[in-house]
């Protein structure tokens, strides 16, 4: 059995024979030692925390931050690549200068941009390793020494005032040398792996081969699924996964970037606050808030932000550039081993082009002072391709107090493809600011206090920025495939909102500050000293790694793929909840410094047993460490949690171009780190809530259970249809409410539903799509007098449209309809929202191959629907101090138009 496994792992073709049979054993022994060393970053802190030693604290610090850990391993890898004296010179230079940095920190010298330089160091060393960059020995040492100083300074900042400087320094120097050795060992191991897996032609020979045969290259048959027009019968693992390509996106009306996610059947992306902030998402009976439980990725890098100041899973997609999207791959349900956190309901992975077919210059202008400019293209550079894009957007919206939304957005990507392997480095940057028109109370509109597009607090708004750098490497041959991705993201948000108006801060609770607040008056100047506005600052660094290795082999006569993967993520976060008037802070509800680290190994096997049976079996482990340091010491804490999640899929068929699917799996809902350590209310300081119930810490990871039965058919020529019956249970919908700084208890729930998606191309110039989604959502336990409706769960979603192109000499475009039905807004089901229906359309004309013009119209029926509706207590001037329960909504924009041109060259 052992020999069979080794032969399967090492086989690059048929009838191969190893000259060194002991090599596989040495390889696995080395691999085991390497994994043991890598895991020490997690196990050593756990084993040694009980020992109170300055040396140990110094030793642990480099191992607890992925920015330090990855950089120091990278120095070892680079030293091993350079060989010779560099193997000992670079590590020695690093620890020597790092010690000086620690001394500078201990001496309280002020050094700016330390964290930025630490992140940059990891990125620089990644580039020189991937690119195999070699400078002179002196320059190599200078590069290492420069970045080492900042790492040492950061280590020194973590040293307590009472600690022994020498002992602490020896500790972090020892850990650093250990990590350098791990890097050197990793580089040596990579050479062994390369020699065994890829360079096996040097160690193995085919029977009866000839010199000419040895020089033959292997050509792989590849099936590329780039859109809904491509059949996934025989490819897909479930009925609820698919791909959307640029061909489908470029003929759709898109008013904001997030609407590319609405190509996922059944998904609604709306907004309750003008432009700028993350959108509100709905899918499969879930109000996903700003992204909880739906994983969104850009080229495999997660967009969801955990423990965000405004909400768990915050998914801000405003940095997306639709014209750069090559394909969007979606997978609904928790049935896929490669997806972990935030993926219980589904996932979407947006992949950008490596190379554009032509340069693009695009400008669009329209209603409400909207304009957008875009320049994008790609150029051959050296052995690779440089992709670039720059974008600016401005939008005032129909609001009386205009959004004045202004965004700058850019991307650079350099990529190389060489035979069976390739790599790329991608940098993205975006920055924006805006004023908000948040949701308004229905009674304020009915009483004539405000107009439909007015605001109650005109001082709401915010600003954000996001910068990221991603490195990716991939390789594939006849026997295996490997993919590696590392990323670093810095993001910052300042958000100011007021959803209850004058409920907490009014003329009764604060008569001096609100003395001028008269009944019926909504003078904007009042918000300089009154009202319930709050601020939610969020500042974070996110780093991560994703790696997978797939073996192509056989189980008996059946073709089989087995994938082993590892995903690591670390977030260092500073956020808070503040009390503000007109964006000026006058109080603090809570401030937190949060560190969340996760490690997730997984394995998955896909086997094609015969012509009508395929299986997909996966197993995933997710382990988390949460560390919260709060402005209220009672809410400090460190917790660990982990879950094992099995996945299973079975595919029957195809018969008559039709397949049947059975899928099931366990997943989890992750809770905000602040919610799992909170022991006292941050507002009152009490250990009990308003109802007198004790405040209990939330469970870090809550189990979810999902299953699905589906069918996919292309039996009718030109028509692709999928039908899925799905079910999902969640043990608790406990929610940390960023707007209040506390955890809101909830109950276990059950959802089930039906999805019917269709894509029809009767000709090569015309397509129709129609997607129908119906769901039923209820809490599983009844509470007398409350009810069991899940608030804001959308039961019905319909999306349909038609697109045409190259008609009558160059016309293109089409209409698009979106409908999401009424939904219960409270647990009793008595308060219901109205449905929302929007119709939009595009009409364009290609003047020639280099120039096209297009016109877009939104809300063509000029309906006065709501983008989103809530039901809760708020207070207007002169009302009862306890407030009034009322419908609170954000209106959709009225009919609007945009006109633009696109030049290609």
UniProtKB/TrEMBL annotation:
<dbReference type="InterPro" id="IPR036942">
    <property type="entry name" value="Beta-barrel_TonB_sf"/>
</dbReference>
<dbReference type="Pfam" id="PF04955">
    <property type="entry name" value="HupE_UreJ"/>
</dbReference>
<keyword id="KW-0812">Transmembrane</keyword>
<feature type="transmembrane region" description="Helical">
    <location>
        <begin position="63"/>
        <end position="80"/>
    </location>
</feature>
<feature type="transmembrane region" description="Helical">
    <location>
        <begin position="86"/>
        <end position="109"/>
    </location>
</feature>
<feature type="transmembrane region" description="Helical">
    <location>
        <begin position="116"/>
        <end position="133"/>
    </location>
</feature>
<feature type="domain" description="TonB-dependent receptor-like beta-barrel">
    <location>
        <begin position="420"/>
        <end position="860"/>
    </location>
</feature>
<keyword id="KW-0675">Receptor</keyword>
<keyword id="KW-0998">Cell outer membrane</keyword>
<feature type="transmembrane region" description="Helical">
    <location>
        <begin position="27"/>
        <end position="51"/>
    </location>
</feature>
<dbReference type="InterPro" id="IPR000531">
    <property type="entry name" value="Beta-barrel_TonB"/>
</dbReference>
<keyword id="KW-1133">Transmembrane helix</keyword>
<keyword id="KW-0472">Membrane</keyword>
<dbReference type="InterPro" id="IPR007038">
    <property type="entry name" value="HupE_UreJ"/>
</dbReference>
<feature type="domain" description="TonB-dependent receptor plug">
    <location>
        <begin position="242"/>
        <end position="345"/>
    </location>
</feature>
<dbReference type="InterPro" id="IPR012910">
    <property type="entry name" value="Plug_dom"/>
</dbReference>
<keyword id="KW-0408">Iron</keyword>
<dbReference type="Pfam" id="PF00593">
    <property type="entry name" value="TonB_dep_Rec_b-barrel"/>
</dbReference>
<keyword id="KW-1134">Transmembrane beta strand</keyword>
<protein>
    <submittedName>
        <fullName>TonB-dependent receptor</fullName>
    </submittedName>
</protein>
<keyword id="KW-0798">TonB box</keyword>
<feature type="transmembrane region" description="Helical">
    <location>
        <begin position="168"/>
        <end position="198"/>
    </location>
</feature>
<keyword id="KW-0410">Iron transport</keyword>
<keyword id="KW-0813">Transport</keyword>
<dbReference type="Pfam" id="PF07715">
    <property type="entry name" value="Plug"/>
</dbReference>
<keyword id="KW-0406">Ion transport</keyword>
<dbReference type="InterPro" id="IPR039426">
    <property type="entry name" value="TonB-dep_rcpt-like"/>
</dbReference>
<feature type="transmembrane region" description="Helical">
    <location>
        <begin position="139"/>
        <end position="156"/>
    </location>
</feature>
<dbReference type="InterPro" id="IPR037066">
    <property type="entry name" value="Plug_dom_sf"/>
</dbReference>
<comment type="similarity">
    <text>Belongs to the TonB-dependent receptor family.</text>
</comment>
